[in-house]
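Example record for the data management plan.
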Amino acid sequence: MSISPTLQECLRSKGSRYEIVRHPYSHSSMETAAAAHVPGDRLAKTVLLEDEHGYVAAVLPSTHAVQFSELWSKTGRRLALATEVELRELFKDCDAGALPPVCMAYGMKTWLDSSLAGQPDVYFEAGDHEALIHMDADQFLALMDDAERAHFSRRMRGMGAMSARQ
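Corresponding structural encoding:
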């Protein structure tokens, strides 16, 4: 599959500078970081959430987990994880579980965890399980300029400095 057409159009329309990093097939964001030999703190993962008002995407480092209470406080919404069936329906041009962070291009509100803004560069899913997009932080933040920024995640246990340096 490679880069999703929606992501490709978003990158083109924003004039983004990036490189594609190929890696062996992986199932999870931490597995992807290891397979691509990139620091987990620099790999952005996208988590799709929902409530009765619709969908919201949360973009955070792969070494972090969403702190729902923080996100509920910031959004004023009681969001929960969306189902895999919903993911497939909303992101038809992506493999399940390989969502790019540009969910604004898919018509949904997107929240970017501020911890990603402090990284020198960022990697993220291109739409399949074998390619990442890599860009410097300025390019990533310009790409994500329509996303709300806030702190709503925490580092997962066992994701200390060793995981961040992979």
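Summary line stored alongside the record: The beta strands are 19-22, 43-51, 54-61, 64-66, 80-81, 109-113, 121-125, 131-136, 148-150, 153-155.
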